[in-house]
Amino acid sequence: MEPTPYDLIVIGSGPAGESAAAAASAFGKRAAIVERSTLVGGASANTGTLPSKTLRETALAISGLKARDLYGVDLSLRHEATVAEFMYHERRVTANERRRIERGLSRHGVVLYHGDASFLDPHTIRVVTQAEPREGGHTHAHHEGGHHHLHPQATRHHEVLLRGETILIATGSSPVHPPGFDFDHPRVLDSDTILQLERLPRSLAVIGAGVIGSEYACTFAALGTDVWIVDGRDELLPFLDAEVSRTLEDAMRNQLGIEFLWKNRVTRCESPEYGDITLEFDTGGRLCVDAVLVAAGRSSNTASLSLAAAGIEPGPRGLINVDAHYQTSVPHIYAAGDVIGFPALASTSMEQARVAMCHAFHTGYKTDLAPLLPTGIYTIPEASMIGATEEDIKAQGIDYVVGRANYAQCARGEIIGDQIGFLKLLFRRDDMKLLGVHVIGEQASEVVHVGVVAMLSEATGDLFNRSCFNFPTLGDLYKIATYDAYRQRGPIATEPTSDPKSEG
């Protein structure tokens, strides 16, 4: 069988894969994507980023949390609401996202193969597929209600060979399944299967206080589920600024009723077919709950790729090592997204893929990733940041000043009824250069973007001093926080100038 040649073969159709194929097409290259699932979009569109964030918005809407804060009215969740109703908006959003991806691939002329990919040699990919590929991002599978359905005559497995001058591995990651948990049980869940719940659990134990665990804990607590977070550590999301982390933990506990079981590790999970699931901890404690979500990290999807045939040796948890251009140890093979590890965000994955393609095809449009990358945490309330934390700055011995602005100090904050949100700006004292931006509260992941642009521009407080923001908006928080920082800083002593009259 003679391999079909392409300038670029991408393995995986998530954010990194889609961006890479689109970039290559824009450079006039012939590109193909191999996607193992019958659905395009990867975890971002189907099991991770978009579904979890959509569920969060649904929870806020139908729980009445915002209504209670704004109007003092309790619009409590209808107890007869079914999971199908709860998931309706999520399924519509993810279906629309898949259609958007398919239209984009079609517009760029990308050939899409649905099947399992593996290396035969550094340039050759073997695809075991169930449908014939077709130009323009489509296969012979037809599309109904956001899902692919294979025609009966196309369901026979067959093999195709592809040859790529350049190859990008963008296969993403999957939840880690630690021993001791029966993941075949319908109420022992990971961050993928939690979307397949048949009913809302009465109570939920979340094992792991990372980003995924914290986000889902907030969503289900907002819907009236009793939630416990169990973690062997004693600090929530320690990469956040400590002040933001403490505020978030207090809000999750006081507003949502989430209980934190710090310094506890699960030693046994008893999951009978009927009745509560029982967790036992190394501290001797026990907890009985209706369902368990295990959020114990993720592992790269590389086991089935036959990387050895390409000359690549994966690291722990299947991670692929890359250089600054996202090249692997084999120069024409690149990797991007979750498969290379931290930060494993949809936003960074897309940028990594674009950098890789610009390097691979020598375009020079984008030579490296931005040195500063924002982080958004979609808990209730949201948290977001870019740059250094206050703890980082102290450790570096930098003389700094903090400017704060509470949402309640801002007219838009009052309008939306956010009583705990704040913006925290960290400036270097001598020249007021912006070193860090930290936000917690409504739309934090949007508010931080003003700080992103400012920090990439190496701005000082003067930028916000001179800026005029629409009123009333949350953007005004930057001006309030900057004025606060200038007040905290006070006047800077300068060397006295000599008096010309006294000379001579």
Explain what you see.
The chain has 504 residues and is an alpha/beta fold. It folds into three domains: 4-174 and 299-360, 3-Layer(bba) Sandwich (FAD/NAD(P)-binding domain), CATH 3.50.50.60; 188-296, 3-Layer(bba) Sandwich (FAD/NAD(P)-binding domain), CATH 3.50.50; 381-489, FAD/NAD-linked reductase, C-terminal dimerisation domain (Enolase-like, domain 1, 2-Layer Sandwich). The chain contains 14 helices and 25 strands. It has helices at 15-26, 42-46, 49-63, 65-71, 83-108, 211-222, 242-254, 307-310, 346-360, 390-395, 411-416, 444-456, 461-466, 476-489; strands spanning 4-11, 31-35, 111-121, 124-129, 133-134, 138-139, 142-144, 147-149, 158-169, 173-175, 188-189, 203-207, 226-231, 259-262, 266-270, 277-281, 286-289, 291-294, 298-300, 333-335, 375-377, 383-387, 400-406, 422-428, 434-440. The strands form seven sheets. It has a five-stranded mixed barrel. A hairpin with a 4-residue loop joins strand 16 and strand 17 (286-289). Helix 1 packs parallel to helix 5, helix 3 packs antiparallel against helix 5 and helix 3 runs parallel beside helix 6. It is globular and about 75 Å long. The protein starts with a strand and ends in a 15-residue tail after the last helix.
